[in-house]
Every structure is written in C-alpha cells, then in structure tokens.
Amino acid sequence: MQQDYKARIDQLRAISGVDAIMIVPGSNMIYFTGLEFHLSERPVIGIFTEQGLSVIVPRLEMPKLIKRPDLEALPIEWSDAEGYAGAFQRALDELGLRGKRIGIDGMTMRASEWLHFQQIDPTLQVVPVERELTRIRAHKQPDEVELMRRAVAASEAALAQLLQEVRPGMTEREIAGRLNELVIEKGCNGIAFDALIQTGPNSDNPHGFCTDRVLQADEFLLIDFGGKVDGYPADITRTFCLGTPTDEMQTIYDTVKEANEAAREAAAPGVPMGEVDKAARDVIEAAGYGKYFTHRTGHGLGLDTHEPIPQIAPNVADLLEPGMVFTIEPGIYIPGMGGVRIEDNVLVTEDGIEVLTSYPRQLTVK
After folding, report:
1. Pair 57, 77: CB distance under 8 Å
2. How many CB atoms sit inside 10 A of residue 15's CB?
C-alpha cells in the first residue's frame, strides 16, 4: 500500500519537548519511514530533526536508502572496516545535537546505543517518547484496517480448515505446525506469531507454549494464533472440545463467552478503557471465577501484535477513540483442569465498534 510517510514524519516531528527523535529498526521505523532493517550488531538509527530525516546506516544497507528518494534522507554512512563510532559522532556534530534533548522509544532503543552517544557527549539528555509514538500509531488509517481485515479473514479460513483435520492423538506441536501452514495457504504472507496450541490441563496457563502433549478426547483445545498481511496481523483465540465437555467445562466456557459479549457491548468511542475491562471482569466475578481471570481484557493491535494503546485493563481512564484497534480476550484458567479464552479483534468507529473477527463463539464440540 502507498503511504504518505511525509505526513507521518510531520506528526513525529510535532512531538514537543525534544530537539530530535531517534528510532531503531522495528515497527516504529517501518511505520514512520517504511524502511525495514534488521536489529543487529550493526546499528541503524533514524534521526528526525526539524531539518528532516537522517539515518546512521552501515554501508551494506545503503541500497535501501537509495531506493527511497521520497524520504529525502541524509545518510550518515559507516563501514565494517571503520566501525560505527565515527558515524555516531558525525551525527551529533552535523545535526547540531550536542547538549540537546533527544527523544527515544525506551522500549526499543538498546542501552548500548544510547550509552555510546553519551560517551561522545555526556551533556545529551534523554527523553522517553514511546507513549507519544504509540498514540500516533494507535489511530489506524483505513488502509491499515483493511490489511487487518484481510489477515482476519485468511486466519479464520485457516482455522475452519484446521478444525476439519484436527483429531485426538495429534500433538500440540503438530496442530500448531499445520495451522501455521494453513494461514499462509489461505492468503496471509506471514504469521503474526507461532500458533499457540494448549490442550487439556496445559490450557490452564494464559501464556503457555506448545509441547509434545497429545490431544485427548473430551478436553479443552485452546488455539491462539494469527496471520498477517503486509505486516498487519490478526490475533484470534478460540477454545474447542473434541468430544463431550463436563458440566463445569461448559459453565466455564459459557461464562467467558458472556464476558466477551459484555466487553464488546461496552466498547464505544469516549468510553474509558477500564470500563471495557470491568464489563468482562464483572461477569466472571459474578460467576465465582474472578480469581481465575488473571490478565487484562485486551491490548492494542497493529504493526505490533501487542501494542500498549489501547490498554483494556482495570482502572485505565484513557478513552477509546475512533481508529483504535484492540483485542477483547477474557479468560478463565483452572489449575490442573484447563482454561478457556475467546479473543476478538475490534475497531472503534465514529459511533460504535466494528468487530473484525466473525468466527463462531459458541463451544464447538467435535
């Protein structure tokens, strides 16, 4: 998709209280420039000042800048033979940044990079601006939303195909491997993260991992997965039972489903994020399972599968705004028995929400 990176850079340069902003490879650099570099032992740093964009870049990566004349970026090039120390010093001198206030994303810039700048100039001041960056990125443009719609549609098609193939006797890793394949087959050009398959008692951990455990009949099968299209992801969780659930399993499932519905009904522009979390949490607590809901109700969704805005968590007073995309994923996890999570992807519109996911939420018994 064709992006107006100049407009995005203008938003970045409008952040107040700093003389420059430095960004390292990752989602922020992709969002604001469209440049993709590896975060490696060879430093690459985008520097945004009033004059425009400059990039500390190793020589072998120069072709990427040459192919992007639209950015009008000033390269501050270095070679493996000379090392990057000189490029760091030239950046401070040529851009007039000695003694200045430098905004960084403290979640991504490495300590080694910042410490090297401070060794050159101890008077540099660091200002964390990660919240400002994520607030800009939190308001998705229509083309970003469309990519997520495509990722959701392909991911849900993959899940439907998987359910035709999965059977007791398969291991969690086997199921995950097949689902990752199907996501690509159905139209995604990557996976947002390796599919998380948790069976039976393994599903009692909301942040578990795949093992060689064999799926048994009559137990929970929790599937958390998502494909991505041009960098934008789906993040979907559904829980199944291959066989007959016990009465308690059905009660737990129905409670989570009701909590998911309550959160979706509560979400709208102008609603405090914490109120959406509370809507889900109240349902689970009223059913007597409050202590088994151990995480927030949702997180932001975009170039990063987990984005900090919106934060659908207790007592968050920030308001939902049009263009925000987030997950709603309440869960109940009973130690030794298993867990249930139902996760949807939601877009805030001008007058409500659009639920991007549509895979059935009732307990599928196979």
Report:
1. yes
2. 16
3-state secondary structure of 47: strand
Alpha carbon distance 87, 75 (integer Å): 10
The C-alpha atoms of residue 353 and residue 266 are separated, in whole angstroms, by 10
Give residue 2's pLDDT.
Answer: 67
Tokens 């400002």: give the residue.
132
Helices 85-94 and 111-120: crossing angle in degrees, nearest 10, is 60
CB 94, CB 52: distance < 8 Å: no
For tokens 């030239």, the residue is: 90
Give CA–CA dist 17/182, Å, rounded. 47
pTM above 0.90, yes or no: yes
Alpha carbon of 120 to those of 47, 82, 83, 109: distances in Å? 16, 17, 15, 17
Q: Closest Cα to residue 49, out of 110, 103, 112, 85?
A: 103
Above 60 in pLDDT, residue 1? no
pLDDT tens column, 198-224: 999 999 999 889 999 999 999 999 999
The Cα 343–Cα 192 span in angstroms is 15
Q: Give the tens place of pLDDT for each residue, 50-75.
A: 989 999 999 999 999 999 999 999 99
Half-sphere exposure of 272 (CA within 13 A, CB side): 9
- The Cα 26–Cα 39 span in angstroms is 7
CA dihedral 169, 187, 305, 298 (to 10 degrees): -70
